[in-house]
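Quick log. Single chain, no ligands specified.
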Amino acid sequence: MDCFRTRSLNTSCMLFSLIILFSMVSLWKLAEGWSYHHSDHRMTWSKAESWCKQYYTNMVAIQNHDEIEHLNSILPKKHGHYWIGIRKVNGTWVWVGTGKPLTADAENWADEEPNNRGIGQDCVEIYIKRKTDAGKWNDDFCTNQKTALCYTASCTADSCGQHGECVEIIDSHKCECFEGFYGAKCEHVIQCPAKEVSSPLNGIVHCSHSNGRFAYASHCQYSCSEGYQISGSQTTRCEASKTWSNEPPTCEVVQCSKMSPPAQGTMQCEDPLGHFSYRSACGFTCEEGYTLTGSGQLVCGATGHWNDSVPTCEAVRCPSLEEFVHGTVSCSGDSISFGSTCSFKCDDGFRLQGAPEITCTESAQWSQKMPYCEAVMCPHLLEPVNGFISCSSEKATVGTVCSFDCLDGYNLHGSKMVMCNLNGNWSGEEAECQAVHCPPLEEFVHGTVSCSGDSISFGSTCSFSCEDGFRLKGAPEITCTESAQWSQKMPYCEAVMCPHLLEPVNGFISCSSEKATVGTVCSFDCLDGYHLHGSKMVMCSLNGNWSGEETECKAVHCPSLEEFEHGTVSCSGDIISFGSTCSFSCNDGFRLQGAPEITCTESAQWSQKMPYCEVIRCRLPGEQIHLSSECSRSSDDLTVNSTCHFSCETGFDLQGAVSTECTETGEWSSALPHCTAVMCPHLQEPVNGFISCSSEKATVGTVCSFDCLDGYHLHGYEMVMCNLNGNWSGEEAECQAPSLSRPLMAGLSLGAGATALSFIGLALWVMKRLRQKAKRFNLSNSDINVPHQTYKSSTDSLI
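-> predicted structure:
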C-alpha cells in the first residue's frame, strides 16, 4: 500500500498509519535506552545546545569508538556535518553535559586537528559518512551553521539504587557498582569470613558493621589487658576482595628497660611474667663506706616503666676543709667523700707547715690535721747617706718592694727599687746618692740660648728665643732640678706657618715649599678656558698671613663672530665659550679662504682669523706665443662654468683640447693647449754633394738648396721649401757624373698657397748662396752689393 505517496489519505491508509505509529511509540517506551536525535535545519553551536536541552537531554557526549561507528552508520550525511557536546573552556576541551575535561584516550581528532586554522575554533563537529576521516572530530568556529546532534538519556535516579552509578550505553544503560557491591542494580554486598576475626589471648576485639555483619567495610579494633600491648595491626577491615585487611594481632607482656646494679652496690630481682617485664620487682644494697641514695626497691608497671629511677651508692663524706690561705688545694673525686685525697701547696713567698696530703677515711674523718702556709722574710734594709728608703710593707715578706731616693741636688746610683725574692733575698744592687748634674742641652736650631752659672748643675736656668720667621714652642725657660732632669722639655723653634691655601675652582696652585712657612711663595693659574681674577702670586709674611687678594678663575668667552657671507657656520655648544669649535663651508661657486675650523682658546681669542668665501675663478696663463683664445667672459671674471676656445697661428698645430671649462675646484676641466710649429721631414745631403738650409729646424717657409762637389752636376731640384702641410715643395736632388746634361737651374716649386713669405725666404737664400760663392773665390762682403736686412714672419722666426 503506497499510502505515503498519495496527496489525500483514505480511511484505510489513515488506519494503517495509526497502527504503525502506535507500534513505534510502544517499542520506544519498552526499549528505555539512550536514543539519538538531530535537527532538520542548521544552527550555531550555542543554539544547537539550547535546542537539544529544550527537546531532549543534551548534545551528544560520545563514550567510545563503538558509539562513533554506530552514529556513522545510523545518521544521514549532512552539509556542514553535526555539532557535538565538546567545547573549549579556559583553553581546555570539556564535555558540556558533565563539565569533565576531555581525556587523551577519548580524543578522536581528524588528521592535523585540532586548531589548524589559528585561534577561535572553540566548538567541535563530527564527520558523518565523509569519504575521509568518517567519525573523526574537527574544531570549528562556534558561529558556523551545522546540524544539532542530541541524545535522550535512559538512566533514572533509582536505576542502580544507592550503591551504583548508571552509565548510558548505545540504545540502553548499565550499572557500574561502587566498590564492595555487585548485582544488576548493585543490590548485593561482599561478605568476609567471621571466623577470621577473634579475640587474642589476654585481649578483646570490638567490631562495627555499616553494611551488615562482617560485610564490606565492617571495621574491627583490638585491645589488650593491663600489662599487655598489641603486637601487629590494631585494626582490620572487610575489603572488596572478601578478605580482611590485616591478620589478628597478639597481646605481648609489657617490657621495662633493663637495669644494672649501681657502682659499689648489688641488685636482686623477682620476675613472675618474664625478665624485667610487667610485675617484676628489684631490690638494691651498697658496699661498706657507701650509702644508698634513692628507692631501695623498683617495680615494673603496666606502662612499661619502673616506678622510680635506679638508686646510687654514694661514698660517706668527711667534714668540709677550712679555707687554705696563701696556697692551693687539689683533691681526687669529690673533695670530701670516702677515699678522696687532698694535696696542699703554698703560693710563692710562703712555706707549707704540716702534712702535704690528707685522706677521707671510712669513719668520715680526715687522716691528719689540715696544714697552713707561713710567709718567707728578707733581711732589714738601711737608708743610703743623703737619701731615704720607702717600702711597700713594714715586714720584709716575699714581694715587698722598697724604693730609694736622694735629697735635692743628689742623684741615685744603684738600684732605685728592690724586691724580696722567694728565697728570702733582696733583688738589685746597693744604692747610694751622688751630686746631681742635668743632661747637656741639645742644639737649639733657629734660635739662641742663655744659661746662668754652670749650664748643667742643679738650679741652673736657661732662657730661649727664636729667629725671625720662627716662634718658640715650649717653655721659654727651664731649670735643672734635683732629680738631675730639666724642669721641662727643651723648647724648639717652629717655623711660622700661614693658613692652608685651597686651589681655586677650575684652577690650581703651585707653591715654592710644601709647608707654608714665612717667605713661601704660591702662584695661581687657571684651567684652560678660565681667566685668573685676583692676585696671581702671594707670599707668607712674618705674621703668618698671606699677602695679596683672593683669587678666583672665571670662564673665558671669545668675541662674537662676524657675519659669514656666501656660506654656512656650524658651532658646538656656546659659540663664544672656551673650547667651542666653529666649522665653515662655502656655497657652490665659492672657495673657503682661511681655516675651515676655529676654536675658542683659553686666552679668550679664536685660534685663527675667521675665514671668508671667495668666488672661484680660473686663470689663464700669460700670453702664449702663437696661441690665441676666445672666452665666454673677460679674463678677470672667469668664474665656474666659464668656457674658453683655443686656436693657433698659421704654420702651427694646436696640441691639446680645443676648449675647456672652469670647474668648482678653480681648475680648468682639461689642461691648457699649446702651439707647435709644423715641421717638414729631415733632408739628407746628396752623395758627392751638400745641402744648405735657411733655418736649422725645417719649419714652414724654410728653404734648402743642394749643390755638388766639383766634377759632379746636380740632377733634380736645386732648391725646395717647407710648405704649410709639412711637406717639401720638391724631391731631393742627387749629384751625377759630368757626362750627364745639367740644367742651368731647376725651377723652384712653391706649390699652391705660397705667400710672400716664401719669396722673402728665397731672397735670403740667394744672398746666402752669393756669399758662399764669394767665399769660394775669395770675395769680401762688400763686393756683393746686397742690402743686409732682417725679416720677421708671423712665426717670429728669423730665416
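Confidence is low (pLDDT under 50) at residues 1-32, 740-761, 773-799.
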